[in-house]
Write a structure and sequence with these properties.
alpha/beta, eight-stranded mixed beta barrel, 12 helices, globular, disordered N terminus
């Protein structure tokens, strides 16, 4: 990726400056519990970058640049530090899920960094739940398994995101002991019209009960789908039809 695509003369210097000067904002999309007393037990943390002329940049415009220059571990550390600050300051949502890049999963020091952040701020180990994309689970199984083991060692939790988009194999999930599985939107959107999608979701629910992981349905955009998810005893749901992302400070 060239600097011409970003408009930055020196992309690396610009990214370092953005981290040093805290030029990011955290958003959060709450995740709805479909049973139980706690309505929003967790929320997914999303990051935006501030650019003076263009206000807040969406992730698709700056994350590829971080990835190209292999600076995702620095950005993921910034997200963790600031998510922890929000929890310490007080939040209606008591647990945040944080997306991790493949580069960060291969960073052996990252679990120790997370454990130190939580411990030094007096937070419970499960205050942060780490989202690992299914593609990284399939492509980096060794790194993901090592990260999950390190995370579980200090009491942390892991979630597999986008499950079912590429595969419906449960062996990798069993191997790393996932605590939650987020069913891909390509399945969730079709559960009212596709027998295949319905069967895939039922398979995830059956295995989830056996392996004791929670199931989150993502990309829920209308009430009919939400009602079907409740009828199927899906544990959690997330999407624009439930709650749009908001600045994390507003929560």
């Amino acid at each position: 990726m060239s600097s011409e695509l970003t408009g930055w003369l020196d992309p690396v210097a610009r990214l370092k400056q953005a981290i040093e000067k805290e030029e990011f904002e955290l958003y959060c999309q709450p995740i709805l519990a479909l049973a139980g007393e706690e309505r929003y037990p967790m929320g997914e943390v999303l990051v935006r970058m501030r650019e003076e002329e263009r206000a807040l940049l969406p992730p698709g415009e700056f994350l590829p640049v971080f990835e190209h220059y292999r600076m995702m571990p620095q950005l993921d550390r910034w997200v963790v530090r600031n998510a922890v600050k929000r929890l310490v300051a007080g939040s209606r949502i008591q647990r945040f899920t944080v997306n991790l890049s493949g580069q960060t999963l291969e960073d052996r020091d990252f679990p120790r960094f997370v454990a130190a952040q939580l411990s030094s701020n007096g937070l419970a180990p499960d205050g942060l739940l780490f989202e690992i994309d299914e593609s990284d689970l399939l492509l980096r199984l060794d790194a993901v398994t090592q990260f999950a083991a390190a995370c579980h060692a200090f009491g942390g939790k892991v979630l597999i995101d986008g499950f079912g988009h590429r595969s419906v194999s449960f062996k990798p999930i069993q191997a790393l002991g996932a605590d939650y599985v987020k069913v891909d939107g390509s399945i969730v959107r079709k559960i009212l019209t596709s027998e295949v999608a319905h069967a895939k979701l039922n398979a995830v629910l059956r295995v989830g009960e056996a392996l004791r992981f929670g199931v989150v349905a993502e990309c829920v955009e209308d009430q009919d789908i939400l009602l079907r998810l409740k009828a199927l005893n899906v544990g959690f749901a997330q999407g624009f039809g439930i709650y749009q992302p908001h600045p994390i400070s507003s929560l």
